[in-house]
Write a structure and sequence with these properties.
The complex is a heterodimer. Chain A has two domains: 2-76, no CATH class; 95-316, MetI-like fold. Chain A contains 13 helices and no strands. Chain A has helices spanning 2-30, 35-39, 48-57, 64-76, 90-125, 130-144, 147-161, 173-212, 215-222, 227-264, 270-279, 283-311, 313-316. The longest helix of chain A has 40 residues, at 173-212. In chain B, strand 1 (14-25) and strand 2 (28-40) form a beta hairpin. By secondary structure, chain B is of the alpha/beta class. Chain B has helices spanning 2-6, 56-64, 90-93, 108-111, 118-130, 134-147, 153-157, 166-178, 196-213, 224-227, 248-253, 258-265, 306-310, 333-345, 348-355, and strands at 14-25, 28-40, 45-49, 72-80, 83-84, 101-104, 184-188, 216-221, 233-238, 241-247, 316-319, 322-324. Chain B has an eight-stranded mixed sheet, with helices on both faces. A four-stranded antiparallel sheet of chain B has the order 2-1-4-5. Helix content of chain B is 35%, strand content 20%. Classes of the chains: A mainly alpha, B alpha/beta. At the A-B interface, helix 9 and helix 10 of A face helix 5 of B.
């Protein structure tokens, strides 16, 4: 039963990825401008024979579907092709850039989750009270500020005003250790997390308000347990099921969402590479990175579904 | 009465005096509990009986101080162990709840947390109240689960509530309530949500545990059949007030209030021929947000006379330890006269009982013969 469910989910995942790959391919195909013209230096553009030779070397003269089929076929074997501009294999570029993006998305998800749990829980417990009203004002603000603006504000506050943290650049954990790494990561991750944090806090609050009305909360009170214990032990876990799903989806979403924030903080992540790929008409790079981000997103979703099974014993036994 | 005398030497465990719980809502003030007084002695069992909406659950939760919300107003006194519970700050109630006073709730499907293991739910408050170790708590819990007749108690310790049947879950709830050896146990309709076959087992279990532990118990129910033979004293509630109060055999043998009589009549009897219509009480309990004039049962009462619609009868002693609030108590000549008068005047709720019919509409209230 359970394995059937998992098999069905995996089949759906594969179908989704095919759709994503096709859409990406067609979209890049629609980009104005000829990739060959972007590859060649301006003085080489007059030599039409040369252009056609390169086009057939790169097999860009094949029909669209043939090229799509070749790309997907290779991608399934782990070969995402090479950049037309730098000749760097796309998978190498991803390998090189992914740690920054993953770390940012992970940190942002973590901040959003950890901060939202107490905010949401106590707002729900004191529904309509002072804490609830302040938290609500904060979440409204956080939701209406775009991440890049929050990033710019953070740079102004923490770099220009207090000079606590650097405004750009990246220290790799492997080179400089975790503290130096976090110094460069915390501002972009914080800016990235704000909207997700606000959504989570509201979600947890709404869910907890419902949970706190359940009979088992009343019976927990009648046992003489303390409010904080009831909140954390008895109310949070039933409410966390929805939250966990959202956390997972956010992580997937934030991997794509880092594109803008990496640019603001000039970080060597996947997003900045994707952007430069778009500027340079680096077709293979755009396709490869987009497909990779989509893959991470759907795989994360699958794991979220499986985690759900672990967390809710009622689902687990079915 | 025998029980009242055996406890004469003891101080009462719980004294409720003129307790009132009012909810302020948009439609007005709901008098869910209105001037209730009673005493409960150690080891005694009190039955609180009434229809849905009669205020019995609110009464139990007011005494425990559990039905809290911003719009509740409580007055009166609840003396328990030298303290007036209504004066205890809520933060200090956590030391009384579960330890001195415990509660078994109506629906074991919803009163246990679905994602917390049985073991933790049985032990967490014991550990909090007595500060015992995890291992000690585990042993105690297994002992408790065994004492409430849960098979394979050790395995059940690791189970989640959904893996148990309704009856088993209610046993778990009872084990939770008994865990700290409380002096007073509230059982709020503990069998209403259960199969009929399981109801008796649960009631017997409660009774046995109560005797073993010499614990006082308040059994809240809508079913007089449930309390028969299991309580020392019975309080019958209607529209937030006590309408009759006496020891159990007195209430059954010398029923005084027409509402109690109606409740008794509505218990199906085994010696009735099959397909006999169940006796229902005509009409519905009154909306407590309306201000009532006269006796609140009068619109549904087969004996109601003019006086009943104008003056609210007070709870008065008919005999020692038998209180009733009625102008025409059952079994008196006045009651008989009122019955005949209503019958000849054709009052629908009276005729319905005379003919064994069910009447839902009691909008025709005044017996025409009396005006």
């Amino acid at each position: 039963m359970l394995s059937k469910v998992i098999a069905a989910r995996i089949a759906r995942l594969v179908a989704t990825l095919f759709a994503v790959s096709l859409l990406t391919f067609l979209m890049v195909e629609q980009l104005p401008g000829d990739p060959i013209l972007a590859i060649l230096p301006p003085e080489a553009l007059d030599d039409l024979e040369n252009i056609e030779r390169i086009r057939s070397e790169l097999r860009l003269d094949d029909p669209v579907l043939t090229r799509y089929g070749r790309w997907v076929g290779n991608a399934m074997q782990g070969d995402l092709g090479k950049s037309y501009i730098t000749d760097q294999p796309v998978s190498d570029a991803i390998k090189d850039r992914i740690p920054v993006t993953i770390e940012l998305a992970f940190l942002a998800t973590l901040i959003a989750a950890l901060a939202a749990i107490p905010i949401g829980a106590f707002s729900a417990y004191h529904e309509g009270g002072r804490f609830d009203r302040i938290a609500s004002a904060f979440t409204t603000t956080a939701l209406s500020i775009p991440a890049f603006l929050a990033g710019i504000f953070f740079i102004w506050l923490f770099t220009l005003k207090f000079n606590w943290l650097p405004s750009s650049g990246w220290n790799r954990i492997t080179d400089k250790g975790i503290v130096a790494n976090l110094k460069t990561a915390i501002l972009p991750a914080g800016a990235l997390s704000l909207a997700a944090l606000a959504i989570n806090a509201r979600l947890i609050r709404a869910d907890m308000i419902g949970t706190l009305k359940e009979d088992y909360i009343l019976s927990a009170r009648a046992k003489g347990l303390r409010s904080r214990y009831i909140l954390m032990r008895h109310a949070l876990r039933p409410s966390s099921l929805t939250a966990i799903t959202v956390f997972g989806l956010q992580f997937g979403g934030l991997i794509g969402g880092t594109v803008v924030i990496e640019t603001v903080f000039a970080l060597p992540g996947l997003g900045t590479r994707l952007i430069s790929g778009i500027y340079q008409r680096d077709v293979m790079m755009i396709q490869g990175i987009t497909l990779f981000i989509a893959t991470v997103y759907v795989v994360v979703n699958l794991f979220v579904d499986l985690l759900y099974l672990l967390l809710d014993p009622r689902i687990r036994r079915q | 009465m025998a029980d009242a005398t055996t406890h004469l030497g003891d101080a009462p465990l719980l004294v409720v005096e003129d307790l009132a719980t009012h909810f302020a809502i948009d439609a007005g003030l709901v008098r869910a509990v209105d001037g209730v007084s009673f005493k409960l002695y150690p080891g005694q069992t009190l039955g609180i009986v009434g229809e849905s909406g009669s205020g019995k659950t609110v009464l139990a939760r007011t005494i425990m101080r559990l039905n809290l919300g911003g719009n509740v107003r409580t007055s009166g006194h609840v003396r328990f162990l030298e303290k007036d519970l209504l004066d205890v700050p809520i933060s200090d109630m956590t030391r009384i709840w579960g330890r001195e006073i415990a509660m078994v709730f109506q629906d074991p499907m919803t009163s246990l947390n679905p994602v917390v293991k049985i073991g933790r739910q049985v032990t967490e408050h014991v550990r909090k109240h007595f500060g015992i170790s995890k291992a000690e708590a585990r042993n105690l819990a297994i002992e408790l689960l065994q004492s409430v007749r849960i098979p394979e108690a050790e395995a059940r310790f690791e189970s989640f509530p959904h893996e148990l049947s309704g009856g088993m879950r209610q046993r778990v709830s009872i084990a939770i309530a008994l865990a700290c050896n409380p002096k007073l146990l509230f059982a709020d309709e503990p069998t209403t949500a259960l199969d009929v076959t399981v109801q008796h087992q649960i009631l017997n279990l409660l009774g046995m545990q109560q005797q073993e532990r010499d614990m006082a118990m308040v059994l809240v129910t809508h079913d007089l059949g449930v309390v028969a033979g299991r309580t020392d004293e019975i309080i019958v509630m209607y529209a937030g007030k006590i309408v009759e109060q006496a020891n159990t055999s007195e209430i059954f043998h010398r029923t005084s209030h027409p509402y109690t009589e109606a409740l008794l009549r509505s218990i199906p009897k085994i010696d009735q021929p099959s397909h006999t219509r169940l006796a229902a009480i005509a009409g519905r309990p009154p909306d407590l947000a309306d201000s009532l004039q006269g006796c609140s049962f009068s619109p549904r009462c087969p004996y109601a006379q003019e006086r009943c619609f104008e003056e609210d009868p007070q709870l008065e002693a008919l005999a020692t330890d038998h209180l009733s609030a009625c102008w025409y108590p059952v079994g008196t000549p006045e009651n008989q006269a009122a019955w005949e008068k209503n019958l000849s005047a054709g009052r629908p709720s009276t005729l319905a009982i005379a003919n064994g019919q069910i009447v839902d509409d009691v909008s025709v209230q005044l017996p025409s013969g009396t005006s």
